[in-house]
Amino acid sequence: MTTDADKLAAEGRLNRGVAGGRQILITNDDGIESDALGPLADALAAVGDVDIIAPERNWSGASHSITLYRPLRVRSTQLRTGQNAYMTDGSPTDCVRLGVLGFLKRKPDLVVSGVNRGSNLGDDITYSGTVAAAMEGLLSGLPSIAISIAAFGANIDFAPSAAFAALLARNIFDKGFAPDALLNVNVPALPRDAIAGVEVTRLGKRTYRDQLVERLDPYGNPYYWVGGPAVSAEAEEGTDVAALRAGKISVTPIYLDLTNHALIAELAKWDWGWSGPVEVAAD
Predict the structure, then answer these.
(1) Alpha-carbon gap, residue 52 to 31, rounded angstroms
(2) 278 within a domain of the structure (yes/no)
(3) How far is Cα 68 from Cα 48, in angstroms, rounded to an integer?
(4) Is 280 among the domain residues?
(5) Contact at 8 Å (CB) between 110 and 17?
(6) For 42-86, what is each residue's pLDDT tens digit?
(7) Residue 15 lies in a domain
(8) DSSP string over 216-261
(9) Cis peptide upstream of residue 74 (ω within 30 degrees of 0)
(10) What distance lies between CA 159 and its chain's CA centroid?
(11) Spatial distance between the Cα atoms of 126 and 281, rounded to a whole number of angstroms
């Protein structure tokens, strides 16, 4: 079967890196128009061969959604910075699934999701399409990185984030990485020489002042805005929130086992009102 990736390869238009032999899939949740894709692709091309599959629109907050009840459409395109890419009407997770299930000529060796506009700290990761794409890479057996910058708006300097993603990619290829975790990275919006360092962290706590705002459309029908700003509260040392506030890059290993192991034995003592015995699974 000849894929679109085969056609681009025949035309010599793939984004070939200098390292060779290592295939890196880039995706995001900000969409194909994100100006972070170009700098990230350039930085990672020094580490391996780069493929880009990104959503055709912004999917921020999409979490780990996948497309089930309609076909996915994929088109080849070029970024504004000239790199070849694919755009799809699917979610960030769909982008990774396309990449690992055969759309590309070669299965990726690494998934890099980002660079996201806005940090993904603490509880944010449960909503983030950026982190979800890395989770899909992990579920597909691939080392995966989600990387975000703590900035919004125009004129963001993505160079430090892109350079750090390339550094992480080199480390993963050189040293290997745990098969049951991904790396969630948050970079402060600072010039490279002003970043205070790198801290390996745990997830912190993010609190938002969410509210429901009801309004009426011109026909008198109600509609709603839901959301609110993050509340600036004290952050615990050792967390991603505290590291970012200190001007450091936070690197958090994320493990997908959401089981609260400490509660297994406790729950087994409850009166379940059930005829069979209550069993405690081996931890």
Answers:
(1) 11
(2) no
(3) 32
(4) no
(5) no
(6) 999 999 999 999 999 999 999 999 999 999 999 999 999 999 999
(7) yes
(8) E-TTS-EEEEEE-PBP-----TTBHHHHHHTT-EEEEEEE-----G
(9) no
(10) 18
(11) 26
86 closest CA partner among 99, 98, 101, 76: 76
Q: Structure pTM?
A: 0.88
| Amino acid found at 279 | E
Spatial contact of 185 and 249, defined as CB atoms under 8 Å apart: yes
Identify the DSSP state of 90: S
Q: What is the CA radius of gyration of the chain?
A: 21
* Structural domain boundaries, residue 253: 4-205+233-268
Residues 33 and 60: beta-carbon distance below 8 Å: no
Question: Does residue 163 belong to any structural domain of this protein?
Answer: yes
DSSP E strand stretches across 56-93: 74-78, 84-88
> CA-CA distance, 146 to 33, in Å (whole number)?
18
What total of structural domains would you count in the chain? 1
Write the pLDDT tens digit of every residue in 123-178. Answer: 999 999 999 999 999 999 999 999 999 999 889 999 999 999 999 999 999 999 99
Rounded CA-CA distance 230/127 in Å is: 14
Query: What does the alpha-carbon distance between residue 27 and residue 42 come to, in Å, rounded to a whole number?
Result: 14
Q: E strands within 57-175?
A: 74-78, 84-88, 110-117, 144-149
